[in-house]
## 1
Amino acid sequence: MTTPLVLTVNGQAVSVEVHPRTLLVELLRDTLRLTGTHIGCDTGQCGACTVQLDGRAVKSCTVLALQAQASEVTTIEGIATAGGELHPMQAAFKEYHALQCGFCTPGMVISALDLLKHNANPSEADVRQGLDGNLCRCTGYHNIVKAVLAAAAAMRP
């Protein structure tokens, strides 16, 4: 048995049929082929699957796809410009070498953007606290924090 689901993903209207127990991360990766959203732990601990749901960061492995009915979802693929120019946060991650294997990067970027929505001028401690739910297995936190601080400065009016 499937249920119709209508939502907006990265600015595009999407209409699909899903099983009631389908997770949002599964919809994004398996059905919509937006594989930038990673599956790390499947328990909400690592943050690799973080996306924006109606403008706030959520771990998509803890959200049923049907909970996103009539919602707007933004994945890592949806934050660059239509012309492919990197978002300032993505550019800062690149410039400050804030990725090693890259597995955590999409979730880190989405979480960092959520942090900056609430605090446009964070301290280092604010960034570390704001990214607390995202794990980097390569221990690249120092450069990640530097990148978020640089992006915050670049994004301020």
## 2
Amino acid sequence: MARRGETIELAVLGLLHEGPMHGYELRKRLNLMLGWGRLLSYGSLYPALKKMLRGSLIAEVAPEQVPGAVASRRQRIVYQLTDKGAAEFERLMSEVGPTAWEDDNFDIRFRFFSSTDMEIRLRVLEGRRSRLQERLDRVQRELAMTQKEVDRYAAELQRHGVESVEREVRWLSDLINAERGARTDTPPPPTSPAPSPASND
């Protein structure tokens, strides 16, 4: 399972890959991305930023050095991605394995799918769907065994869980079909005209 710090690091690298921003904006965007159940405090963000600064994945820059930055009375530190950070982001986004489709990591990976090769996107989506299908099969078996033993509200909660997973499996299947369709719709690269036969003259 991916540690929270690794998830934050991937998210920060992805956001800074899109452009420099200061800590307040980073935290706001991260919280939108992570969702209300995983709100990020400054106490979690700034240690992660300091670690990434030490690793030369990101750099601090003065706001006046950032094109388009708006000057304010209270100048905030702006963070931007280094070449090393960009390479690390690309490496992380190209990884395919169980951590790529875990609950903690999948949403972040999906948010930055536009930076990912189609084949990698397909493998991550298929891995996520397989993981959820296994979970769904297990929960449905448990639901069938315990329905007679639990009260109405416990049964409703279990049913709600099953329906949520079923919805995500259908959503993933639609995405996978769309990716496969896009892959087959891609026109072949233009071919060079065949060379003319050599003249016997």
## 3
Amino acid sequence: MSSVGLPSSLADFGPAALTAVVVAGYLVVGEPVVGHVLHRRFEGRLDSDPGARRSFYRRLLVLEWGLAVLALIIWLSAPGVSAAQVGLRWPERWPGPVTGVVVVLVVLFVLVSTRALRGGALLEAPDAVRHRPGEPRHARSPQHATLAVLPRTAQERRLFTVVGVTAGVCEEWLYRGFFLAVVAAVAGGLPDALLVLGAAAAFGLAHAYQGLTGVITTGVLGGVMAGLYLSTGSLLVPVLLHVAIDLRFLLVPSRVLPSAGAVR
């Protein structure tokens, strides 16, 4: 049962209705394309530009905060959509038993995966992530996108911390608070299960640059975050969990990460 009284009609968005639909559509269709282009350009600069990672982090910050502010302006222009209807309130109740169990499993996964990463799990099969002679340059392992983005230097780690917090705040606002409000307004009366699936699909597609494995993994996490949001009525808990999931990579020592050339 949802604790979020989502909008039931696009009329609730008033003069901002069309813009809201366009931005929500961009999150599903445009963001996967933009993400793919940004990552390919970033990966192409890794070998020759020592500042490629920092530059990429800054671009992510501009893109995410820009979209988040745009969605915020649209919501502020929507006379019939309250703060509670986009998750901007304190949690109304604890998650239900099913959602609670799923969240516990996600937390356990984070703990176990973090321990594995600290132990050098990303380097268990280094040959699998190197570009072999004769292979097309796009032939990369599913791990490549994750390996390339992780910070190595102290300055990169500081920026990555800001990126991790930004992702937790902005992506939860965009893909759970704003996106689900627009979907509910357009479709009207959708059950929570379909809203969760929609949020999972949109979030997974946004990470298409990570390959099929990345789409599935982030899609599942997006669905969990949506369920947590709908059951508590607030974006607060999903934001905190999202930030923790992203920032766990800061616990990975630089010595267990391959150099830029090793992930090409």
## 4
Amino acid sequence: MFRNRTDAGTRLAEKLKKFKKEPGIIMAVPRGGVPVAYAVAKELNLPVELVLTKKIGHPLNKEYAIGAASLTDYFIIPHEGVTDHYIESELQLIRSRLKEMQKTLQADTLPENYEGKTLLIIDDGIATGNTILGTIKLLHKNRPGKIVIAAPVASEPAVEMLAKEADEVIVLLIPSEFYGVGAFYEDFRQVSDEEVMYYLNKLKELRKAG
């Protein structure tokens, strides 16, 4: 059980110290992954970016991921009954949301060059892993040196699936019975845009001071 997301991040950072000397970037999954990534970034002294990707859901079940999209790219796993028109409309909707998120949370932040670097994708927990799976596939197109998934808690099926796609998966707690990420936190209140901006600004200050 973790007290809150920053407590989880502090404990996760201990397992990620081996990446401290590598040229890397922490990719925080908004919004819940940002406080976790903040604690890790403080320890590793690595830059942080937000993961601006979202899953593309199936038309009959939006929670079932059939692909993922970023502001510049997307991928789809072909499914019967999923039309080009549906995909195009979903891309427009998703990218509109991502642009708004980018404008609100990192308007003045230029993206790092991912090529050859270790990318640490950090979230507060992983239930199905489908969204992160989509993120991995999109990030691979940027030719990173290594992709590492890190989270305080994750379901066993998600870890097994992601281990096939990422170079490494590091999770502190893989419970035999998984009831949802929030069940493993004492404080799992929703993270606001203001909190995300607070953590990102704090990290900018720390990197300038360092």
